[in-house]
Design a protein that fits this description.
single chain, 335 residues, globular
Length: 335
């Protein structure tokens, strides 16, 4: 049995689910937004083996036979409506998150992109840079800092050609009802005039890297799928292709050099992950410059506009424990 942790409206999850069911695989979709209000979750240690179960909609789903879990798009945990105090609700929802992450961590099966603990560590952007550099990736001069002087030093060193971005997505759920994500912007003279404000919170400053192409690399197991994004074709996407101007921004399949592709797989693997998306820049002088790793990066639009068979690769990977179990011993040695 394969478990997909996502929301009912997730079209990417639905595409993979259809592929799995067409191959005769049992698939269960679980929306974590139903926990704890509508779903009852138990891990028990009453005998020699732990037992995992979710009671929901009048049924009990036992996960003892789960071979793979895909943490595709876990939803926010929502306390029961009977808990009306905002502070108590926040505590309950935080506790639910800690419990459920421990629940998943304790399961002995294949996980995509990886265990919750591994995914948490993989969110740390400074660690991305350190490991990418150690693997031989080309990286731009970068500082993670709340020290205005460090910002100004890099600004002068790069003759003002800098970009800035936040260190992670910031959650303003109660005020805005969603995550707050600030896209990459160029550093301006106005920013320099207000350099002291850098001391209020850490921020990333990075030398601007000239772009011929931006690359979105999707790693599934040991398979690598790369799309080239012609972000410089549109003023809207000049600094950050996530401003999305698909009509004016061609997306095409791209063949990475073997050594770069191998490094991408090694980077994902070093974080204990089985999936990851990596953003690179291809410069006018043909250098591949590393930007960042995302353990839960989207790929649906890349597959749609380029035809890269990423959903098939995800389905294949989720089925891999079943295939290994079904292989005769002689074949398993060569699998």
């Amino acid at each position: 049995m394969i478990l997909i942790v996502s929301t009912p409206a997730d079209l990417t999850a639905q595409a993979v689910e259809r592929r799995l069911r067409s191959r005769g695989v049992k698939v269960v979709l679980f929306d974590t937004g139903r926990f704890p209000s509508e779903a009852r979750i138990t891990v028990s240690y009453r005998d020699s083996q732990p037992r995992y179960a979710i009671r929901m909609d009048g049924q009990v789903l036992r996960f003892d036979d789960v071979t793979s879990i895909w943490f595709r798009r876990p939803n926010r945990y929502i306390a029961h409506p009977s808990i009306t105090d905002a502070e108590v609700r926040a505590v309950v929802e935080q506790d639910c998150g800690e419990f459920l992450n421990a629940f998943w961590d304790s399961m002995n099966c294949l996980m995509l992109p990886g265990s919750p603990s591994a995914m948490k560590i993989a969110q740390r952007k400074p660690t991305h840079m350190a490991r990418a550099k150690a693997l031989g990736f080309d990286i731009a001069p970068t500082v993670f800092t709340n020290d205005p002087q460090e910002f100004l030093d890099l600004y002068r060193e790069q003759e003002g050609r800098l970009i800035h971005k936040i260190t992670a997505n910031l959650t303003l759920q109660e005020r805005m009802g969603t995550e707050f994500s600030r896209l990459t912007c160029g550093v301006t003279r106005r920013d320099v005039m207000h350099a002291e404000s850098v001391s209020l919170a850490p921020i990333v400053f990075q030398a601007y890297v000239p772009k011929r192409l931006e690359l979105r690399v999707t790693v599934v197991g040991h398979r690598v799928f790369t799309a080239e994004i012609h972000s410089q074709e549109s003023n809207r996407t000049h600094f950050d292709w996530r401003r999305y101007d698909l009509g004016a921004t061609p997306h095409l399949p791209h063949e990475l050099p073997r050594d770069i592709a191998d490094r991408c797989v090694q980077l994902v693997t070093q974080f204990g992950l089985t999936y990851g998306t990596i953003d690179l820049i291809l410069t006018p002088d043909d250098r591949y410059v590393f930007l960042e790793l995302n353990s839960a990066g989207e790929y649906g639009w890349i597959e749609q506009v380029t035809g890269l068979p990423i959903s098939d690769a995800v389905a294949d990977f989720l089925m891999s424990p079943m295939r290994a179990h079904a292989l005769p011993v002689a074949e398993l040695a060569h699998a």
